[in-house]
Structure formats: C-alpha cells, structure tokens
Design goal:
Helices cover 31% and strands 29% of the residues. The protein has helices spanning 13-24, 28-40, 92-106, 149-156; strands at residues 2-5, 47-53, 56-64, 77-83, 111-116, 128-133, 142-148. Helix 1 (13-24) crosses helix 2 (28-40).
Length: 157
Amino acid sequence: MEILKIREYPQLLENTAYWFHSKWGVPTEAYRSSMCQCIADANPVPQWYVAVEEEKIIGGLGVIENDFHDRPDLTPNVCAVYVEEANRCRGIAGKLLQFVCRDMREKGIGTLYLLTDHTSFYERYGWKFFCLAQGDGETRPSRMYIHKEEENASAKA
C-alpha cells in the first residue's frame, strides 16, 4: 500500500473525486473543485490523500477548512475518512491519519479537528475528544476530535 498526495498526482483527480463521491454522496464536482484548489494553490488547505494498492484506491481522506458543522473556529478539519470494507482492520486508516498529521505539520499546521459519530476509533491514533458540534442538516450533535501534533510528538519522545 502507498499513500499518495493528490497535489503530487493530479492525474488521479477525476478517479479520486468520483471515488469520494461514491462513498459519501457529496457531488463529484465538490470534490473536484476542492482537489483542483489543492493542486493549484500553495496554501496548506485543502489537501487530499488516497491509499492505493495495485493501482486501486482502497482508502482516503481530506483536509478542508470546515467539515460542514457549526464550529468554524475549529479549523482545519480532517474529512471524508474512508477505507474500503474489504481492506479494513489492516491499519490503513491509522496510517492515513498519521500521514496527514505529519504532512500538515510540515506545512505549519499542528492542530487538526475531525467531526465523527465514532466514539472510540480515533483515540487509537492520538486524537482526543474535544467537544460536541452540530453537523449541517444533522438532528443530533456529533463528536469533535482534536489532534495536536506537538503534544503527540513530545509524548512519544
């Protein structure tokens, strides 16, 4: 398995945008637009990443300003974390999360947020519950997690 940065592999844009659309139901054009911005801009956000095995996308995630919730002060957000069902329980999500945290730290961003309904999954990878946030169109609040790279780096030392 290899993790690829879409900004370095623009030829993957169309397939990747469609892949994310097929997982989350968000229009392909929304992913395409964000990925085009990722490729064209020198800004650290947005960013998109895919895990590839034998030239097939088996997982992916992105980093965007706000993952459609009522806390715009909590930014940027890791979003659209997904691993194909047949490839789960192999540590791929953890590797993707570690990769994105390291890549964003190299871009000067040490704190990331993530909105989810999972209750314990992300703690395995150094994320901490931060607060509840209301997702757009959701009837109940979801859990907002935080990952501070400087804290995790010092904890490992």
